[in-house]
Amino acid sequence: MDSLATDGVEPTGDSVDDLVSHLRDQFKAVGLDPDAPAPRDPGRQTGDDPSGDTDGDTTSTRPRCDRATATANLLRGISSVADGVPPALARGFVGVSTYDLFRVLSGSEVASVTTDTDGVVRFDSLDVTPAGPDESTAAAVHECLIDELAAADRHQTELTAATPTVPLSVRDRIAAAVFDELPDGAVEPTTFAFTLPDPSELGSETMAAYTDDHPPLVRERATLDDWHRRRQPADAARFTELTDRIVNRGLRRDLDHRVLRIMTPYDDDTFAEFASGFRSLLRSGFEIRLLTRHTRQRWQWERLRDNLLGELDENRNQVTVRTYSRYKEYGRVDFEDGDDDRSEFGVHAKLQTVGGSEEGAALLGSANFMENSYHWNPECGAYTEQSRFVAAAIDFFDVVWELSAADEVALDRLQEVPDRSLYPSYYS
Q1: For residue range 291-318, what is the model confidence (pLDDT) as tens digits?
Q2: Is residue 229 part of a domain?
Q3: Do 121 and 259 fall into the same domain?
Q4: CATH value at residue 283
Q5: Domain that holds residue 319
Q6: What per-residue confidence (pLDDT) applies to 142?
Q7: Residue 349: which H helix or E strand, with range?
Q8: What are the backbone dihedrals phi and psi of residue 285, each rounded to the nearest 5 degrees, phi first?
Q9: Beta strands in 168-310 (DSSP E)
Q10: The predicted structure's pLDDT at residue 137
Q11: 3 state SS of 147
Q12: Against a cut of 0.70, is the pTM above it?
């Protein structure tokens, strides 16, 4: 930037004075003092003192002037070669921010301006008389930009070399403030629940029967093994693990609300896998509430009896089983005609909760309490200890539990299951 002037253009004193007078009015219009002193030298200053005397060498001899005059000089100096004023020039030459300069010029008759994302005031048009070659403005603008670049370079170097440290007490206060602003129960862990066949869990004999020597299934086994060993996300766990976590939370914590809730439409001998944990919960005073579907075949009721109640040799009075199934059209079941063919709906959710909302946990998803759901089918869901989520899950379970009160299954009734299908009490 050797020159910011246009050779051969000599401004008249009146035109400069008119520009300064106009800018002074604009400063006043936006609430800024036009007569406040601008920086003595927007470039490198090595000897200025607060009194304004120059004791050392300076690279510019431009006298101190007011904001309005400095703005006029700046506009005249860059009018022929630049299309805007960057923040460095606004601060160093006039002593204002580019936002304030924009406010002054946006209502001005001499300029049409906009701002960009870098804070530069851009000229759409600028109607001022350029400065002559004898002015010191160009050199001062040049010096100001050089100093700004040098300062930015120093700042970058300092930041690169710096090792920020925060006193422990300050960090503690920040952490406490952030924690206090969090909603209650917002920081409890949540885990993605899944089922996907795991070759190592199922065992080599089971997997050999599954794949035989069929190449596509051999490759599928390798993919499953790789996912479980290397690619399984850290925040994911199997439904089997998470059901254990539900049971263990009841055993290892002194929970005030000692209830294990299980909602599953279908079940098999998977119940037997967790029977030991269920027995321990019952011995420690827990109640187990099971919600399932009602319209089962005799063998399904017998399987429930054998796999759940058959494994619980004591404290059976703490186990309650209810069913919820309904028909979309009301009518009594005619047992002589056999099974009813009306459209049915009922429990389909899969949900487990333990404890109360402030202390417990919930597990939900697509998995029934069955072998396929826990070991084979691709299933997914979520486990959480987030108190508001747990509260919502418990409330949902309890309203269905309330609706199913008429179909509470007496345990002694399961000892001798009748040789026919069982139906909800409202229809039988």
Answers
A1: 998 766 777 887 888 887 777 778 888 9
A2: no
A3: no
A4: 3.30.870.10
A5: 190-197+234-415
A6: 67
A7: none
A8: 100, 10
A9: 190-195, 236-238, 259-263, 287-292
A10: 60
A11: helix
A12: no
Give the total number of structural domains in the chain: 2
Q: What is the pLDDT of residues 275-294, one digit of tens each?
A: 889 999 999 999 999 999 87
Structure tokens at 157: 């170097």
Report if residue 218 sits inside a domain. Answer: no
Half-sphere exposure of 291 (CA within 13 A, CB side): 26
**Which pair of tokens denotes residue 106?**
């946006």
**191-220 core/surface letters (b: 16 or more CB in 10 A; e: else):** bbbbbbbbbeebeeeebeebbeeeeeeeee
Cα–Cα distance measured from residue 123 to residue 112, given in angstroms and rounded to the nearest whole number: 6
Q: Which residue among 112, 144, 160 closes a domain?
A: 160
Residues 408 and 318 in one domain: yes
Whose structure tokens read 């000089």? 73
pLDDT, one tens digit per residue, over 7-53 is 333 333 456 788 888 888 888 888 888 888 887 544 444 334 433 44
Return the H-helix or E-strand segment holding 376. none
Task: Based on DSSP, count helices (H) and strands (E) in the chain, helices before strands.
Answer: 16, 14
Could you give the CA distance from residue 281 to residue 312 in angstroms, rounded to a whole number? 11
Measure the CA angle with vertex 383, ends 381 and 385; round to 5°.
150
Q: What are phi and psi of 314, to 5 degrees?
A: -150, 165
Look up residue 336 and give its two tokens.
Answer: 């002589």
Q: Of 123, 125, 104, 118, which Cα lies nearest the Cα of 148? A: 118
| Contact predicate 195/232, CB 8 Å | no
User: What residue ranges of the chain have pLDDT lower than 50?
Assistant: 1-13, 41-62, 134
Predicted local confidence at residue 83, as pLDDT: 76
Cα 114 to Cα 19, 34, 122, 286, 353: the distances in Å are 20, 22, 5, 71, 60
pLDDT value of position 338? 56
**Other beta carbons within 10 Å of 400:** 16
Give domain status of residue 367, yes or no: yes
> What are the structure tokens assigned to 357, written together?
């909302």
Query: Which tokens sit at 282?
Result: 């019952």
CA distance 347 to 292: 6
